[in-house]
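Because discrete structure vocabularies remain unfamiliar, we reproduce here a specimen of the format, pairing a chain with its fold in token form:
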Amino acid sequence: MKRNINTAHLTKAFIESRISQEDIVSKYLNIPIETVQNCIEHNNLIKSVFRDDDTDGSMGIAYNRKGRLKVRDFGGFGFFEDVYGVVAYVLSIAYERPISTDNKQDFYFILKHIYRTFADVIDNREHDYSTDDDIKNALFKSKDRKAIIELVPRSWNKEDKKIWDKWNVNLAYLNTHFVIPVDQYYINRSSNPEPKYRYVSKDPCYAYMLGQNKQGIYLIKLYFPLRNRHIDLKFITNCNVLEGLPNLELDDYDYIIITKSSKDRLSLGSHLTNKPLYGGDGKLLKIGVINLPSENYRLKANEYEWIKKKLSNNGMILSFLDFDRTGREGAEYLLETYNIPYLFITRGEFGLSNYECKDFADLHDKYTKDEIDKFIKETLSYVELRYRKENLCNSDAYYERLSDFDLPY
């Protein structure tokens, strides 16, 4: 039966006088209202409903200062919308056409869909169950839908050099490690023809090119190094994969080091290129560096087996994550699951040495290149002693093991 809707009262103010923003988000994300309220009250993150999410949680729901409920996908492609943006995104997938809150006709369509979805609450009308199917089918399809990121590159400039020099990474190294300076980028250009970003020197963007999927879509992570992560997104991506694999070209690495970020991977890799290391037999050590896509990522068994096959017969995988709670838990997971020993830079926690740096890239703020090179050589000697000769990677208690890693970096 066709429903007659009084268009005169179908406004945002009317909708919100009858149904809460929290209820709208709960319905269109297909999650319990208690989950929405828990995110708001305790600042918790949940797994993204828009994509396969290997983390413990990367989607947040919170009110802004204007009282608008906002949903942000921190690990995704830059999704950050209010409740009507959420509805627009879901309906765009459901009806396979672009639906924008900026378009007057589209916005009315959004309000109309919300009305139909909550008709039983708003006007005591019969519930339209077809809207539930719209939402569930759209969220199901979104799991297999990768955002298409298109780039307009630009040339490197002095400001770029200054940023990357801070981490001891030269522009030539970036060119050979699939890092591109971005002038503009688009996301799903066919339905969003305007660029999402235009270059300004105060907010540079760099694209990490991470490969292609089976459908030929480029896997890209966009990085904004000068942004405040508490205000704006520092990363936008259309994938959740191990990074640096295109440069892991050999099959006989002595070491493969797993870091927690592309910045650390590039900084450490650049240092090792400029100051190569030699083993006790005088041979050049082959060291590969890759990184996890996020601090909460858990390495999969097939990924571990692939990395392991890139090692020499006596090769070793090491983790090198941050010495915060997330990093320690991630390192503990790698140790317990795959017997991968870990290294940390400590800052005085648990009575360990304080090197006043959070990660490898930050070492360049405090130490000279020669000092860092000395740290690496001393650490390598320690690893050789502890693991290659004594094989002591399974010490007893967790914090006893932490003391084993009171290293120069």
Observations:
- The first helix runs from residue 12 to 18.
- The chain is about 35% helix and 15% strand.
- The radius of gyration is 25 Å.
- The first strand starts at residue 45 and ends at 46.
